């Protein structure tokens, strides 16, 4: 019996690896690089994925983001997290000598090792740390079929 792989799953994993490598290399370019404006928004989202007996727990550092700025989606074996700040207009009349604070967006897709019960996923956020609990889906044992 051969096991078939999902080509879209392999592509998604390839893009995740490429994204991480791009993020790592872009950090070395520095603030004065011509690509700095283009790479803004590709900030790294630090993620921990822990497996317990009956659930997965994903912990994500999102300093400076509020609950209403974070979106979580679960599909099949993938958890997608997006965090986006609303752009604030600079105060008119302010004479900035230096302005380094920027509002940015981040996103990350995490491939989960097993299927999860999408209906019972829960999330909480405290002090810029997001915790997502994903209960594992109970997989039924294979049933043998008698051939007539």
What are the segments in which pLDDT stays under 50 over at least 5 consecutive residues? 36-42
N to C succession of SSEs: HHEEEEEEE
Biggest sheet, spatial arrangement of strands: 1-2-7-6
Question: What separation lies between the terminal Cα atoms?
Answer: 21 Å
- Tell me the Rg in angstroms: 20 Å
CATH architecture of the largest domain: Sandwich
Strand-pairing-aware structural class = alpha+beta
Helix content: 10-25%
Overall pLDDT level: 79
Number of helices: 2
Q: At the third CATH level, what is the topology name of the largest domain?
A: Immunoglobulin-like
* Binned strand content: 25-35%
| Level-1 CATH class name of the largest domain | Mainly Beta
Number of strand elements: 7
Shape label: elongated
The figure for the number of domains is: 2
Task: Give a quick account of the main beta sheet: strands, pairing sense, barrel closure.
Answer: 4 strands, antiparallel
Can you characterise this structure?
By secondary structure, this protein is α+β, with helices and mostly antiparallel strands. It has 2 domains: 42 residues; 87 residues, Immunoglobulin-like. 17% of the residues lie in helices and 30% in strands. The protein has 2 helices and 7 strands, in the order ααβββββββ. The strands form 2 sheets. It has a 4-stranded antiparallel beta sheet, with no helix packed on it. A 3-stranded antiparallel beta sheet has the order 3-4-5, with no helix packed on it. Strand 1 and strand 2 form a beta hairpin. The longest helix is centred in the N-terminal third of the chain and has 21 residues. The radius of gyration is 20 Å and the shape is elongated.
């Amino acid at each position: 019996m051969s096991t078939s792989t999902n080509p879209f799953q392999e592509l998604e994993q390839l893009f995740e690896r490429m994204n991480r490598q791009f993020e790592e290399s872009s950090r070395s370019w520095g603030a004065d690089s011509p690509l700095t404006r283009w790479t803004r928004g590709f900030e790294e989202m630090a993620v921990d994925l822990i497996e317990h007996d009956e659930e997965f727990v994903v912990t994500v550092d999102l300093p400076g983001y509020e609950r209403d700025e974070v979106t979580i989606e679960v599909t099949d074996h993938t958890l997608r997290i997006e965090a986006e700040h609303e752009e604030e207009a600079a105060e008119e009349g302010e004479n900035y000598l230096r302005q380094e604070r920027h509002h940015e967006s981040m996103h990350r897709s995490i491939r989960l090792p097993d299927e999860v019960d999408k209906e019972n996923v829960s999330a909480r956020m405290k002090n810029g740390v997001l915790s997502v609990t994903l209960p594992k889906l109970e997989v039924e044992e294979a049933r043998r079929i008698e051939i007539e």
